[in-house]
User: What shape does this take?
Amino acid sequence: MKSFGELNLSAPLAKAIAEMGFTEPTPIQAQTLPQLLAGPTDFLGMAATGTGKTAAFGIPLLERIDPTLRAAQGIILCPTRELAVQVAKEICTLGKYKKVEAKAIYGGTSFIEQRSAFNRGLPVVVATPGRLVDHLNQGTLSLEHVKTIILDEADEMISMGFQEELEFILKHIPAETRSTWLFSATMNQQLRRIADSYLKKPKTAQINKKDI
Assistant: This one.
């Protein structure tokens, strides 16, 4: 894959990508996009920060979102509030012509405001694991319509002690209808166990930092 034009994207997404100045995909995008756009699948992507992985998972996620359905359809988990904000901003930019909104959900901010966003029908939730667990425990967020969950920088979430939260969240989304996409720069024993437990015959992509 040498250009985004090869992907046969929907017109709203193609327009947003062109406006963002994306022409030639990065190595992780070139490996990932054709696989994730081909149909529902689990996925394991090995790529560091700064490789363009947000667009690599954001574009196929947005193609799966129904903008007329007022419910959470995609969950993106991030280790920090800073990354959650950054990812949510890029998803909003990519999804603006499809009229798909994303919002960063993290601790230290208004729980009530976040609940209001869910009640309005937020299609893409970008969250830190702890705050998402809080909402699930309070019953303020339904995962009934979630078809895609993305673990971004999964190795960082494990190293920060979020393994229990990750598994709690994954168990709340039916495996039969869920696509799980895991992105990580490294793979340790704990993360391998999660991948083996929750990913079913995943497609894969891997790049080295020197390939960027």
In short: The chain has a mean pLDDT of 94. Strands lie at 43-46, 74-77, 102-105, 124-127, 148-151, 179-184, 203-206. The chain is about 45% helix and 15% strand.
